[in-house]
Write a structure and sequence with these properties.
This is Gramicidin dehydrogenase. Belongs to the thioesterase family. It comes from Nostoc minutum NIES-26. This protein has eight helices and eight strands, in the order E-E-E-H-E-H-E-H-E-H-H-H-E-H-E-H. It has one domain: Rossmann fold, CATH 3.40.50.1820. With about 250 residues, the chain is α/β, with parallel strands linked by helices. The longest helix is centred in the C-terminal third of the chain and has 21 residues. It is about 35% helix and about 15% strand.
Length: about 250
């Protein structure tokens, strides 16, 4: 790790960086999800995972439960990193955070992203068809988490570990479930959406609906796997990201 503050973690950098990729985690996730990405992307793309409160080195901080105060707190920090062109990647909860952050950036007239990469999340303008789970009793909450097909068995089987993660997971799901979409103008840059073919929580049509949020190009890539297909298919995802961002850099 070469540089860190509370929010932005950079595991390695290069002197000829020309574009930054900010990465946002899924519910319960952290920057460690993106630890290997710097090694697999071209050296002129700097990976900047975003560490949210309540996890790893920020485990003693209270996690956010609503997306608006989260992005309002992050925006001033992010501003100092916008001296280069940049893009966003977000998986599940991270896709929602990156979307709302991009909208706040536009409102504040900061430099806007070159590209938005979203993964395993229905388009924000689509209402949820499922009841909220973040306030369920503990046993019922864990049973619902099993449907995401990616929660480690150790987390589900160990009551001690489960109790440690429970407040964070409840908070992260609250971000999803308290979100209220407000209509706005389309983005002027491309959106690339990724999805898992066997995702029991998000269908391909819900992911495809992201195309309605941009008046630029839209790309859809579906991979084998469930809601957390990112863990196994990240090299394929990075290949798509590298191809798109390298074109931006060349241009």
């Amino acid at each position: 790790m070469i540089d860190t503050n509370r929010w932005i973690v950079r595991y390695q950098s290069h002197p000829k960086v020309r574009l930054r990729l900010f990465c946002f985690p899924y519910a319960g996730g952290s920057t460690s999800t993106y630890r290997k990405w710097s090694e697999l992307l071209p050296s002129d793309i700097e990976v900047c995972p975003v560490q949210l409160p309540g996890r790893e080195n920020r485990s003693m901080e209270a996690p956010f439960t609503h997306v608006t105060p989260l992005v309002e707190s992050l925006l001033p920090v992010l501003n100092s990193y916008l001296d280069l062109p940049y893009a966003f990647f977000g998986h599940s909860m991270g896709a929602l955070i990156s979307f709302e952050l991009a909208r706040h950036i536009r409102k504040q007239r900061y430099p806007e992203p070159q590209h938005l990469f979203v993964s395993s999340r229905r388009s924000p303008h689509l209402p949820s068809s499922e009841p909220p789970i973040h306030k369920l009793p503990e046993t019922a909450f864990w049973e619902q988490l099993r449907l995401y097909d990616g929660v480690p068995d150790t987390l589900l089987q160990s009551s001690q570990i489960a109790k440690l993660f429970l407040p964070l997971l409840r908070a992260d799901f609250a971000i999803h479930e308290t979100y209220k979409y407000t209509p706005g103008t389309q983005f002027n840059y491309p959106i690339t959406a990724f999805g898992g073919l066997h995702d029991r929580k998000v269908g391909s049509e819900e992911i495809m609906a992201w195309r309605e949020l941009t008046n630029s190009d839209f790309y859809l890539h579906l991979f084998p796997g469930n809601h957390l297909f990112l863990r196994k298919e990240y090299q394929q995802i990075l290949s798509v990201i590298a191809r798109n961002l390298s074109q931006k850099i060349a241009a």
